[in-house]
Amino acid sequence: MRTSPPSWSAARLDYALATSREEQRAPLAIYLPVNYPNRAASREALLRAAEHADVLELGVPHHSCPMDGPVIRQAATQALAGSDGFQMRDLFAAAVELTARTRTALVAMSYWEPIRSYGATAFTRELAAAGGAGVLVPDLPPHAAPLWRETAAEAGLYTVALAPRHASSARLAELGETTTGMLYAPATPGLTGTRLPLSPHLPRLVRRLREATGLPVATGVGISSPQQAAQVSCFSDAVVIGSAVIRRMQTEPDAPATAAAAACRDFAQAVRQARRPAA
User: Fold this and answer.
1) Rg of the chain over all Cα atoms, to the nearest angstrom
2) What pLDDT is stored for residue 197 in this prediction?
3) What's 87's domain CATH number?
4) Could you give the CA distance from residue 163 to residue 202 in angstroms, rounded to a whole number?
5) b/e map of 103-139 (b: 16 or more CB within 10 Å)?
6) Can you give the pTM of this predicted structure?
7) Could you give the angle at which helices 39-50 and 88-101 cross, rounded to 10 degrees?
8) Is residue 218 included in any domain, yes or no?
9) Residue in 54, 57, 126, 266 annotated catalytic
10) Is residue 154 part of a domain?
């Protein structure tokens, strides 16, 4: 487990987590697919989201999204369509602009196939140079994992992992050895975008992951309302929102960036008001 940031870009994530701890709150992370609903609107939406988010999770659109529900799948399909459909260079361009114009930390979320097709070495180097702090690859194949972790580390990127809900002690030990930056815990069972009650066992899961790995634990997948975000922020090290913001954008197709900003503001207010005692 890494104890110091590997690069200036990764240090932005550490700073966001540390600053939030000092303010006795959980940082807010917002997931948005790059180029959704189109390149221009995506650029504006990301900049507006950064006004409220401590971390932006930049999604790499892909045709196959096995862990995502219909909201993110539809957004990914739209981002890939049209004359300005997503290309990997759009991810790096978005990161460059966000790094230059905001203080928000940046993490990329991508399935393995787009990274493999682009080239893992080129992907990690270009993302780090653009200001990315780390990468979450939820479907990383076991055979590719060792080389991927080495490649990311050489570029100065954190390797963020999605923890299984029922991880064994051995699996937790492995996560502690191979994950850097932070760990990602699912808030609800199933795909992203579900609107289910939070599990009463979630606080214990977060505590177990944190104690076993020594890493900050971000909670996402299924947090659908500001009320749920406030609840999670009382025990998690970060709160990740994705489908709920995209869903708001879908209801206002003529002003998606304004809708994204309003949704992010609502979640940010909820998280910041749910202050917790200092550790």
Assistant:
1) 17
2) 82
3) 3.20.20.70
4) 12
5) ebbbbbbbbbebbeebebeebbbbbbbbbbbbbbbbe
6) 0.94
7) 30
8) yes
9) 57
10) yes
Residue 252: active-site member = no
Q: Which of 54, 68, 90, 237 is catalytic?
A: 68
Mean pLDDT by 10 residues, the chain (279 residues): 66 94 94 97 98 98 91 96 91 98 97 98 98 96 95 96 85 90 87 77 90 93 93 95 97 97 97 70
**Looking at residue 98, what is its pLDDT?**
98
Distance (Å, whole) CA 11 – CA 113: 27
113 is catalytic: no
Distance (Å, rounded) from C-alpha 92 to C-alpha 51?
Answer: 20
Spatial separation of the C-alpha atoms in residues 268 and 136, rounded to whole Å: 22
Which domain does 210 fall in, by range?
A: 8-273
